[in-house]
Every structure is written in structure tokens, then in C-alpha cells.
Fold this protein.
Amino acid sequence: MRIISWNINGYRSITGQNPSRRYDVVTRSNQLFDYINKENPDIICLQETKAAPEQIDPDKLCPNGYKAFYSSCKIKAGYSGVVIFTKLEPLNSFTGIGIKEFDDEGRIIGCEYDDFILMNIYFPNGTSGDHRVDYKLRFYDALFNFTKQYRKNNKKIIICGDYNTAHKEIDLARPKENEGNSGFLPVEREKIDEIVSNGWIDTFRIFNKEGENYTWWTARGQARLQNIGWRIDYFFVTENMIGNVNNALIQPDVQGSDHCPILVDLEF
């Protein structure tokens, strides 16, 4: 089983509904569906869709062979949003954790399957001020507290998405220069430490301990060409899933967003 996670930074752009620009090239090609057709994942989780289903052209709502589960922001148009496309019929799905201030931003979509629970999350960033850093930290706490109900029953859980935090110095190109910036603040990194100490595994680091593996690059300058990036997209799984994880990869050469896709291969 292959699961992919990708912050696409605008669903209508990457599917060609709206024209997208990279440098001086404008395109209306459906880069997302082309990518899905090529990779053929069992499940793909997308973040930062910036669109509700009713804003998307019907022929672009879901790739053939998949079922779609959307969660959209209720308080601001063109903001946040997540979707899961799945070939596997879930037992059920959910779009929140029961806390209005977090659920209303459309950052959470989950599907429960026979063998595991999958949560696709677009974690907040804190770049707009201290109030959003506080919101981000409380979101982390609330989300992982929500998972305790499943963990009590020894459920296997995957939480993938854009965590908006680089965990260690190895996870970004310029750690010293970013110590005071949201995304690498000590309080944010400590939240990832807490997650790990509570029995969650960063799947990529099971297989790759090397630096210069990033998932997001600023659009300024030539950051991506020079690989001046951050690793802020993750698949975290509960400890009881380690035996099911066969591989975890980053695909930095895939274009279409300021993030690149990440994936895990699982076996049950």
C-alpha cells in the first residue's frame, strides 16, 4: 500500500482550473491528476487546497478510481483546506476533533480503515504573529489529545501532512538564521519532541538520517534550485505501526507547488 501526502498550495491552480505560473511559464495543465495517474497511490492526502468542493470544476473534483473526502475552511474563502482521495473504502470519515476554533479552519480530515486510522492535517503556521504561534501550539496539543481515544484501544494511527515545523537542525538548510522564526522556534520544536516522546515515529528518519532532504522551499530567489529548504512535511505513525512501514521517501523533483510530495509504503 502506498500513501502520499502533498501540500499543493492551491487546488484550482495545480489542476489547471486557474492558470499557474512558475517563473515566466503559465500553464493550465492538470499537474495533480497527471502526477496521481503516474504514481497510482492507494491513498493521497492533500493540504492547503484553498477551495471548497463547490468552487471546483466537477471534472476536477476527484481523479478516476478514487473517492474524495474534503474538509474546507468555514470562516475564510480560499484559505486552508484538506482532502483525501482513496481507492480503499473507509469504515468512516471525520472532519474535526470536536473543537470549533480548530475545526472551522478546515485543517483536519480523517478516515478509519480496518487496519489503521489515517489523519491528513494542515497544521497552522505562526508567521503572522505571536497569537498564531499560540494557536498553533494549542492545535498540536488538541490534535494529539484527540488521538488518545484510539490509542487506548491500540489502534494503528497515521498522521500525515504539513506540520509547519522543522524538528531538528538537520531538517532545514539554515538553522542558525531561523532560530527566531516561526517554523523553527524552540517552543515549536519542543512540540515535535513531545510527539516523539509520546510514542510517535517520524517515518522518514527510520530510513534516512541524512541532511539536505527538504519538502518546502521559499519562492524567493532560487531557493529550490539551490536546495535551500525545510523539511516540514511528515508521516508520523504510532509505534505499533513500525512493522508495517516498508519505506518512506521525499520526491523533491516533483513540481507544481512550493512543497513536494512525501510518501510511505506500508504492508499489512
